[in-house]
Each structure stands twice: as C-alpha cells, then as structure tokens.
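RECORD TYPE: inverse folding
INPUT: structure tokens
STRUCTURE:
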C-alpha cells in the first residue's frame, strides 16, 4: 500500500500514546516496525498487547538522549535490517513549569530527549538512506513549537528546534530521494495531555475550534501519508494537525 510494504520503520518512543498509533498504522501498511523503549517490563507488556491486536513490532532498548546508545542501536539495526528506510523521531517528554521556576534539570532533560535525540538518532541512519536513494525522516514536533505555551519554554524551544533541523536537513538530502518533514500535532488525547491539571486542560480544549482533543490515529494517518510514495514532493514542510487551534 502506497509503497510501504517491506520498508523498515523505526519509531522512537513508539510505546507511548502517539507512538503506539504510528507503530500500528505502519505495521498495518506492511512495514517492518521497530520501536525504541526505556522500561523493559512495560515494553514487553506493550509488545504483547500490540501482537494481540495483530501488529508485529520489534523492540530495541535505547536512551535517545545518549549518542553512544544511539550509535549501538544504529550498528545493530543497520546490520540486522540493512538500514532504516523510515525514521520517525517521536520520543518526547514534558517537564512543564514557568520559566522563573524552571531548573537546569528540567531544561536539559527536555532539550536532550526532544531535540538532541533527533541528531543522535538521525545521524545513525542518514548515510544508509542516501546510499539507497530513498528515505523518510518524520519529526514529531508540536503546536507549542509554533505558537509557544505558558509553562513550556523548554518544550517549545526543543519543538521549534526540531523544525529548524527539518528544514536544513531537507535541503541537504532532497536530491538523493530522502524527504524530511515535521508534523506539529495539537493537543492529542494521550497520557501526556491528560497529565495537565484538569482545569487548565479544559481551558485549552475550549480554545480548539473543532471542540475536542485530537486522536493518536489522526497523527498516525498523516505519518503514513508522508512516509509513502504519494508524498515524495513534500519536503521541509511542517504540517499542522491541531483542530484549528493555531493557524499560519
Ligand atoms: N497565560 C497567562 N497567565 C497564566 C496562564 C496563561 N496561559 N496560565 C496560568 N497563568 C497565570 C495564573 O493565573 C497565575 O497567576 P497569578 O500568580 O497572578 O495568580 C500564574 O500564571 C501561575 O503561575 P505559577 O508559576 O504558579 O504556575 P503554576 O505552577 O500554577 O502552573 C503550569 C504552571 C504547570 C505550567 C500550568 O500553567 C500548566 O500546566 N500549563 C499548561 C502547560 C501545557 O499546555 N502543557 C502541555 C503538555 S502536553 C504537550 O506538551 C503535548 C503537546 O505537544 C501539545
């Protein structure tokens, strides 16, 4: 379907809310899907649930904020699968707090996991994609990298940084059949969003013109489209999926 059959797809943080939907969608489309994880017991349980739903997803342990971990993962996947064709940089965390209260730990953890990781992981697979003359890098950014968000100087900086990376790498790889794009989801109904205090969350939902949170499957569908042949002319783009909460 749409040229995805047999392609190798790596989803960082694939065991999370949006990540799970991306893994399921790409597996359904015929990709060999691999997800990174951090917590082994949780990941094994997740893998069993995915299998029960008919989705075959392989697991690899990797702290994406560590270049050495990513190098080891790259060596392993390049040897075992002959490279990664489709890379989804999806791993992300929040450590919200107003800037006046923000600690260096909160700042560094969010920058390392959400942005430095994009360098660490992509660096392992880009030569393979360029060598094959085909590849897809899809960076899961955020509405809050586009508009900013009270309490998220760290997260918004990282997410805006991801798209800067997207635009630059897209220019470097366009002639070799490798597209690089960002997706900027709005507020999606995942554990990350449900962790926001209920009153604050309700105020946010009230600002979404379609009147609801997004669904992880709505982001996964966009990922599958960008990964496919039909999207070969789209590169360096930042595609919003936010229910109309931010336009422009
Ligand atoms: N704009 C302006 N002022 C605001 C405000 C806003 N949006 N929100 C709160 N304030 C004000 C309050 O009214 C209060 O004012 P007073 O001191 O005058 O009473 C003050 O700011 C509160 O400041 P505090 O430093 O005490 O903040 P807090 O500890 O109560 O809460 C926060 C801070 C935890 C960051 C909270 O504002 C919050 O949870 N905000 C939402 C953050 C958010 O959207 N996170 C997204 C997570 S999901 C995600 O990131 C996925 C994705 O990609 C979309």
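DESIGNED SEQUENCE:
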């Amino acid at each position: 379907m749409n040229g995805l059959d047999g392609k190798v797809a790596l989803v960082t943080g694939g065991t999370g809310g949006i990540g799970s939907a991306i893994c399921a969608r790409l597996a359904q489309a015929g990709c060999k899907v691999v997800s990174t994880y951090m917590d082994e017991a949780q990941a094994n349980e997740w893998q069993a649930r995915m299998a029960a739903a008919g989705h075959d997803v392989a697991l690899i342990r990797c702290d994406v904020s560590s270049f050495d971990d990513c190098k080891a993962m790259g060596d392993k996947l390049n040897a075992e699968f002959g490279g990664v064709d489709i890379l989804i940089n999806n791993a992300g965390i929040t450590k919200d707090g107003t800037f006046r209260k923000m600690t260096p730990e909160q700042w560094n953890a969010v920058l390392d996991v959400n942005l430095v990781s994009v360098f660490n992981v992509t660096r392992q697979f880009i030569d393979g994609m360029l060598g094959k003359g085909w590849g897809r890098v899809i960076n899961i950014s955020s509405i809050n990298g586009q508009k900013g968000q009270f309490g998220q100087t760290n997260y918004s900086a990282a997410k805006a940084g991801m798209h800067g990376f997207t635009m630059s790498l897209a220019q470097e790889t366009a002639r070799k059949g490798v597209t690089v794009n960002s997706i900027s989801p709005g507020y999606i109904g995942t554990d990350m969003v449900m962790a926001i205090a209920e009153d604050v969350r309700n105020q946010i939902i009230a600002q979404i013109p379609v009147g609801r949170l997004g669904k992880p499957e709505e982001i996964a569908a966009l990922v599958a489209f960008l990964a496919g042949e039909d999207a070969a002319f789209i590169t360096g783009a930042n595609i919003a999926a936010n229910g109309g909460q931010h336009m422009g």
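NOTES: The chain is about 50% helix and 15% strand.
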